[in-house]
Amino acid sequence: MLMEVKNQIKISLLSIKYAIMREMLNKISFITNIVFMIINNSTFIIQWVVLFSIKNDIGGYSLNEVLLLWGLASSSFGVSRFFFKKAFDLSTTINNGKLDSYLVQPKNVLLSVITTDVEPSALGDMLYGYIVLLIYGITFKLFLLFTLFSICSGLIITAITIIFNSLSFWFGKSDLLAEKMDGFMTSFATYPGGIFKGVTKWILLTIIPVGIANYMPVDVMRNFNLSYLLIILGFTIFIVTTAFIVFYKGLKRYSSSNLMIAKI
Q1: Is the pTM of this model over 0.85?
Q2: Burial class of residue 137, CB neighbours in 10 A (0-12, 13-18, 19+)
Q3: Looking at the domain assignment, is residue 261 inside a domain?
Q4: For residue 1, is pLDDT > 70?
């Protein structure tokens, strides 16, 4: 079992490697996408600088802590888009009957599908996260936690996207619903968790789990909390497992388009 998992991870990493190599055929475009994404992300900080010039505390966050929140949101967004780009087009792949070529391969179907391409600009999102971490004040412990939470949050975003896109097996096009959920995750992730109260806060800890993907990790990095760390790790395992279960339950209902395209 462990050997199968190890082999599948190795195959997925090779698939990502080849996708990166394809993108780097045009090195100027590849690098430009990364640089401009970093610049684009930087412009959004201006609004917070203005707000904090008026008020020193927003939702229990200082300017530095908002920067950390933005850095984590950007980095986790980058992880999901760079390594698992095709997860966000999964509904289209299902509806167009393009899973055929993946089904005949001795590999995990879901991982094979979502790792066949990369988003170059997402690498800029990840780099931006670490640039912000440097500004915040990097330490070895903080670097390790930030990296861990970037991966966990990226996996949570990807898993939720897979779950909602997989609904296409039952209800046809579910891409709009998946896009809305992804939009909610991205939008709420860049606002201090302390500004949300009552029902909204409950929703952000359950239905739209930004609280677990972003707010809790920032709290752990600000003041280490073992309970929060375990909740984050546990939820990441739970939501990723759920994504696999939902996809494979739906795959039993898949209708082939008889469109065979070789995947190497």
Answers
A1: yes
A2: exposed
A3: no
A4: no
